[in-house]
Amino acid sequence: MTGQRTRKSHHGCFQCKRRSVKCDEKRPQCSNCDNRRDTCCYATSGPLLWAETGGECYTKRQEMMMSSPEQGIPNNYSHDIVTHHACHKTSTMIQFNISHLKLLLNWTTSTCRSISRNHADSQVWQSIIPQQALSCPYLMHGIFAVSALHLALSGDFHGNERHALIETAELHQSEAIKMFTKQVDQMAPLEYNASFALSSLLIGFAFAFPLSVATQHQTQFSSLDELIEVFILIRKMNNFSTPMIDNVQKSELGGLLLVEQSQSSLSESSQLAIKALRELLNAVSSPTYGDYHVFADTIDCLENLLTELDGAAEMVSRSFIWICEVPVAFIDCLQGYNSFALMPL
User: Where's the Zn(2)-C6 fungal-type domain (predicted)?
Assistant: First the structure.
């Protein structure tokens, strides 16, 4: 099959871009910078921001934002609330300033409603998860990140204020990942709920972040690149969260896993779309071709998704399930910009 081209290094570090060389995008230090003993810095405008979880670039940016009131986290306010974090492996405390309290208030009064799918999980997001976050710093940073991003997208802030909220969201998201990755290999069952909640927040952040920067500046990522990044993140988080499902389902966070049942019903337009995809696949390929069965299985997964959506199933949850059900090789084809892989999208 034609139409496949080599994937460019869209997420390369600044040093490789400046020298016009291909970056292997290793984090936190790419191979080129490692060989040259350069400080490796990645852009912060990507949708996932996995890069900024440590190192010189992260530290400098964190110090700048924590010391500047214009960045949305004024450090000159008195720290009135101090909470011990039993969830964190090291003995740490979180100090809430006025900016943090504003983000938490926005979460409990507005953001939690915007991400709730139904009544079953509304109370979980509004009350239970913030309570757990008081004893788990990475979860609290995840809440702050999504709350700040929600404010930036609300339309009530413009110019420098909106930019400051986006910067605040990036900082908290990076801090959440930094704390989380330090202890993920030694996680105890008591932390499964907080980890599952953070995974859900990171997925939501990945979907929403490109919307926040779209009108602010031209990003280096195409819409397809951003979508692929979200696909990869969802699958990684699903693989990470699967061993925790039984514990979470039996806990007070169980409402997050409730998926409303619907009657299976594939509409006529969906039937025609699936039929057209299968006919196109048979026209351009054959069962002996390497990727034929990958695309055939992907179309089958899409048919199952449309069947449930046409039957009034909840869209977001079912779409997440579809992303996890499609073959891994389909994601690889998307990353290679395979022309047929774009059709099901």
Answer: 12-42
CA nearest to 39, candidates 20, 21, 60, 22? 60
β-bridge pairing 93-96 and 81-84 = antiparallel
In this structure, what token pair is assigned to residue 107?
């979460």
Asked if 146 contacts 204 with a C-beta cutoff of 8 angstroms, the reply is yes
Return the structure tokens found at 31: 């191979």
Separation CA 81–CA 229 (nearest Å): 37
Res. 337: pLDDT tops 50:
yes
Contacts of 275 (CB under 8 A, 6+ apart): none
Instruction: Fill in the DSSP letter of residue 94.
Output: E
Q: Is the dihedral of CA 45, 216, 105, 244 positive or negative?
A: negative
Residue from 82, 55, 75 nearest 177 by CA: 55
Helix (H, G, I), strand (E, B) or coil at 93: strand
Q: What three-state secondary structure class fits 118?
A: coil
CB 80 within 8 A of CB 104: no
Residue 134 half-sphere exposure toward CB, CA atoms < 13 A: 9
Measured at the CA of 105, the angle between CA 100 and CA 107, to 5 degrees, comes to 95
CA 157 to chain centroid: 23
| C-alpha to C-alpha distance for 114 and 201, rounded to whole angstroms | 12
pLDDT in tens, 91-125: 355 678 888 999 999 999 999 988 887 777 888 89
Say whether pLDDT at 311 is over 80: no
Assigned token pair, 263: 């009657």
